[in-house]
Amino acid sequence: MTAIDKVRVLVVGDSGVGKTCLTHLIANHEPLTSPGWTVGASVEVKLHEYKEGTTSQNTFFIELWDVGGSISHKNTRGVFFNPTHGIILVHDLTNRKSHENLQRWLVEILNKDGKDVLKGNELLDIDPEQFLGSTQIPILVIGTKLDMLDDAHKQKILNRTSVGSIAEQCGADEICLNCHEARSLASGTTDSVKLARFFDKVIERKYYNRETGRKYATNYGGSSMATGPFGNLPVSGSSLAPSLGTFSYLTSNSVTESLS
Ligand SMILES: Nc1nc2c(ncn2[C@@H]2O[C@H](COP(=O)(O)OP(=O)(O)OP(=O)(O)O)[C@@H](O)[C@H]2O)c(=O)[nH]1
Question: Distance (Å, rounded) from C-alpha 254 to C-alpha 251?
Answer without folding.
Answer: 7
